[in-house]
Amino acid sequence: MDNSDINKGWRKEKSSNSLNEVFSSIKIPENASSWKKFMAYVGPGLLVAVGYMDPGNWATDIAGGAQFGYTLLSVILISNLFAIVLQHLSVKLGIVAERDLAQACKDHFSPGVNFVLWIFCEIAIAACDLAEVIGSAIALNLLFGIPLSVGVVITVIDVFLILFLQSRGFRYIESIVGGLIFVIFSAFLYEIILSQPAIFPMLEGLIPKKEIITNPSMLYIAIGILGATVMPHNLYLHSSIVQTRNYPRTTEGKKEALKFASLDSSLSLMLAFFINAAILIISAATFHTSGNKDVADINDAYMLLSPLLGTTLASIFFGIALLASGQNSTLTGTLAGQIVMEGFLNIRLKPWVRRLITRLIAIIPALIISMLYGEKGTAELLVFSQVILSMQLSFAVVPLVMFTGSKAKMGKFVNKMWLKVLAWTISAIIIILNLYLLKETIF
Q1: 158, pLDDT greater than 70
Q2: Signal sequence span per UniProt (predicted)?
Q3: Best exposed site among 57, 108, 186, 325 by fewest CB in 10 Å?
């Protein structure tokens, strides 16, 4: 089976992507060991994992741990397993069909449907960017005393940071992201050692409980965790950046690329699971057990960590990790926005223009809320942004499951029956939970 066999299932040639035109030069060594080949594929998974540990996750995980202890650990675990499956499908679409999800949607759906999907995806990216803006502004406020409104405006500067990094090449971006993830990981490993969580209640929290569904307050945060964990724009992003590897475009070449790229994705997401779970565990061990169950935002957590854990380093490490998280998410949000606009609309904007538009959309509500309502308002806006992300998720997941389950589009690489059932089950769970949330929110 060659590329022409797969391309028969698509109505037209894929549109070009400026990102892959610039960065698709990372050569995969042909006769090297499996380890060296795998290391050549490492990178895109880390960029995707960033979206699973952004400031939006912090807000939902802190609130969940403080209010309900370790109970919602099971939601983080299940969400992460969902993410591993969906990102694998995203990798498969990119490697086999050599299309990102936006390009695939443009090929398959009518212009009207594509426009709606593009709008929903832009809303998701704006919601994600809103979380990054608020998270970075809060970190600047906590570490350096910079007012929230000023911190929100300062986040515009990252436009120039993005331009600089993109000019250096894709491997440079991946290295920076990997370094920042290491900072976040180290900070939370230190926090977990300080907080000394109870092992057995923590393990028990990994088992799902009925009350997560029956308790409306718990369900709201659980869906927020789902939205903060499985990011819709990451499905578009991963299907594109996985193509930055210059692997042989043959059946065997694609099989090998799919194996190594999926391993990169799964291992990176397990790292993201540790960080997400660590935030909730620290919140449960420090706040819930000490009776501070009303801690629902990053500011409160920062202020209470040092007194409760007995060292000022606890809060400082927390703030540094938050700042690293916000900057990391900024990088991937920019790339995702570029991919989505080009894939759906075939409109090419200069990266700094695209980034500035997205950031200004996020800055306006963040600036208004921070000026009018201060810390409490920005914290609530942060959690709400994650619920918005969750609501948009179905519009990315369903097309992805459709395309990778199509024999005509994927040839021999089509999802096996067990994977089709699993993928559609995950889609159904996401849709049902979001419909329930919508009903509860409206009525």
Answers
A1: no
A2: none
A3: 186
